[in-house]
Every structure is written in structure tokens, then in C-alpha cells.
Design goal:
Shape: globular
Bound molecules: NADP nicotinamide-adenine-dinucleotide phosphate
Helix content: 25-40%
Number of strands: 16
Radius of gyration: 19 Å
Number of helices: 9
Strand content: 25-35%
Length: 315
């Protein structure tokens, strides 16, 4: 089978097409014939070596976290998935092998859920990592509930475009922060108010928000303190030294500051699948690629200008 590998950390062109043996699932795993995969910032951040203390120094490595495909083998301990089932899920982004940029992959069954009949492979492959991040960031950390006023910074990206839609499903009043070129897109997602970050400094907003979900982290919780309603929560999707410093200082000032670490929770994945089946979660796919376009796909993703998601069709 063909898979995308790399032999050292570096720019997108370290990625190469390799021929590998088809992997065998262990007791708790399934083998998935990959039909589609999507790219997330963590994929190119790991490839670049940004997280090498966590991702380690073993090569060759594979790439790709999100996948959608068909189960073609199950480990002997797997009781709730069967050969032939359509599934989607998220591989560990730090795992050195069995990434989703491949014709087949083995993955823990606990990271997969069935794809509803109404949802295609390409759409399904865009949902897991970004959808889980949006859902968990808004609800678990941000405590967003019906009637809450929510500010979503970066409403046009992979996480943000799902966050706008999920916040509307929850029943929130949503203000989305996007650039001018994405105003109509944010309106189409259901945002109640749209702020063009090129024309408005967020610190000048007079409204206050119960949840600020920041997918960009160009602002800090402390700079946005006046935009947080009493008891409101600021959530950043960027776990890094700057965010942790901001969190420490924000907490000293009495602000509620949270940093997202996405969890591959199956119940949350099922909820996202249900929302997609009900037409409440509509992926926006900016561009599609083939398996041999992995270098270009990483280049495009790394420019951080993606509107919605980038998808790879495999097989
Ligand atoms: N901690 C976790 O568990 C976790 C999970 C998921 C994601 N993340 C992180 O969250 C971040 C977002 O992920 P993503 O998948 O949404 O990335 P993405 O799809 O690459 O985001 C690109 C989008 O961000 C918009 N953008 C760029 N600068 C902006 C600004 N100043 N204000 C508003 N929008 C801006 C861009 O629109 P314009 O080009 O039009 O500005 C583009 O649509 C990444 O850093 C990722 O690593 C973390």
C-alpha cells in the first residue's frame, strides 16, 4: 500500500510517497481502508519539528490525524465495529506510524465511530479533530449554553467554522471574528454578528461575552478582559508557552482562562456525527487533493489561510 512518510523534521517537501506492507490490527484496533483524510495544523507542526520533545526522534514517521474509510479487519477484542462498516475518527497526531495519509491504517477502535448514511467520506474526514476541538472548547471548557453570548475568534478556519455552527446548535448568540473576505461565509454558517478583524480592534468592542473561544491567539485573555462578561470564560486553542503565561497572569487578575487539549472522546464524536447527519454541521471544503499531493496540501495548510478544511481523497 502507499503511504506518506518523512525521514526528518523539516519543510513540506520532506514528505514522500512510500510503499509499505498493509498493517495488522492488534486486539483493540481496526484496520481502515482510508477513503478520505483531512489536514490539521498539528500535522504540519509535528512535521516541522515544533513538538519534537513530544513526538520524539524515531524515523521514518507518517502523517495525518483525521480519516474516513471502511473497516477491513478488526482485532479480536473489538466487539462494536465490523468489517465493511464506514467509520471516521482521529489518529493520535503524535503517533510515529499509521497516519491517515495512507491507503490503509490501523487505529484504536475507541477512536472510531460509524459515519451516518447521509454523510460522505470527504465531509466525514473533515469533522473529527476540528469538530471535537470546537465542541469541547465551547461546552466543556467555555461552558457555553443556550442564550450565552459567544465570541469566536477565527470563525473561518477548520475549528472556527465548526464552532460557529455548534454554538448555534447549542442556542448561543454568536459573534464571529473573520477577515473581510470571509464575512459572507460566516453569515452562511449562521453567525449573528460578524466582526472584520482588519477593520475593528477587538479590544474596542463594547459588547461583553460569556465565552470567548479564541482559535487564533493573536489577542490575549488579559487584553480582552473588558470583553468578558462577569463570570465569563476565555478559551484558547493554542497550548504553548505564551498561552500558559497568559493563563497564569489572567488567573492572577481573577479571569477564567482555559487552554484546550482536544480529547478523542467517542461520545463527542458520535454527537458530531449526529449533527452532520441532521444537517446542523456542514463542512466547508476549500480544496481537495490526492495522496500524491501531500506536499502541496501541507504547504497550503501551513499558510494558515484555509477557509474551512482541506481534504485528501484516497483510493
Ligand atoms: N489544543 C488543541 O487541542 C487544538 C485543537 C485544534 C486546533 N488547535 C489549534 O488551533 C488553531 C486553529 O486551528 P484551525 O484548524 O482552525 O486552523 P486553520 O484552519 O489553519 O485556521 C485558518 C483560519 O484562521 C483565520 N485567521 C488567521 N488569522 C486570523 C485573525 N487574526 N483573526 C481571525 N481569523 C484569523 C484565517 O482566515 P483569514 O486568512 O481570512 O484571516 C483562516 O480562515 C491552530 O493553531 C491549531 O494548532 C489546537
Amino acid at each position: 500500500m502507499k503511504a506518506i512518510l518523512y525521514d526528518r523534521y523539516g519543510p513540506p517537501d520532506v514528505l514522500r510517497v512510500a510503499d509499505l506492507d498493509v498493517p495488522e490490527p492488534s486486539a483493540a484496533q481496526v484496520r481502515v481502508r482510508v477513503k478520505a483524510a483531512s489536514v490539521n495544523p498539528i500535522d504540519w507542526k509535528v512535521r516541522r519539528g515544533d513538538m519534537r520533545l513530544l513526538s520524539g526522534f524515531g524515523f521514518p514517521r507518517s502523517t495525518g490525524s483525521d480519516f474516513a474509510g471502511i473497516v477491513e479487519a478488526v482485532g479480536r477484542g473489538v466487539k462494536d465495529l465490523a468489517v465493511g462498516q464506514r467509520v471516521m475518527g482521529v489518529q493520535s497526531s503524535l503517533a510515529p506510524r499509521n497516519g491517515s495519509f495512507a491507503e490503509a491504517m490501523v487505529v484504536d477502535a475507541a477512536r472510531c465511530v460509524p459515519i451516518p448514511a447521509a454523510v460522505g467520506f470527504a465531509d466525514a474526514a473533515t469533522i473529527p479533530l476540528a469538530g471535537l476541538s470546537a465542541l469541547q472548547g465551547l461546552q466543556r471548557l467555555g461552558k457555553a449554553r443556550a442564550g450565552a453570548r459567544v465570541l469566536i475568534i477565527g470563525g473561518s478556519g477548520g475549528v472556527g467554522h465548526y464552532a460557529v455552527q455548534i454554538a448555534k446548535v447549542i442556542g448561543c448568540h454568536v459573534t464571529a471574528v473573520v477577515s473581510r473576505r470571509n464575512i459572507e461565509m460566516a453569515r452562511g454558517l449562521g453567525a449573528d454578528v460578524i466582526v472584520d478583524y482588519g477593520a475593528t480592534d477587538l479590544v474596542s468592542l463594547r459588547e461583553t461575552f460569556d465565552t470567548i473561544f479564541d482559535c487564533v491567539s493573536a489577542w490575549s485573555a488579559r487584553r480582552l478582559a473588558r470583553q468578558l462578561a462577569p463570570g465569563g470564560v476565555y478559551v484558547s486553542t493554542l497550548p504553548g508557552p505564551d498561552s500558559f503565561l497568559d493563563m497564569g497572569l489572567a488567573r492572577l487578575s481573577g479571569l477564567k482562562h482555559r487552554i484546550l487539549i482536544m480529547q478523542p472522546d467517542r461520545q463527542d464524536l458520535r454527537r458530531l456525527a449526529d449533527m452532520a447527519a441532521a444537517g446542523q454541521l456542514r463542512p466547508i471544503i476549500e480544496r481537495s487533493y490526492g495522496l500524491t499531493d501531500a506536499v502541496r496540501m501541507h504547504q497550503d495548510a501551513e499558510a494558515s489561510k484555509t477557509v474551512g478544511k482541506l481534504v485528501m481523497s484516497v483510493g
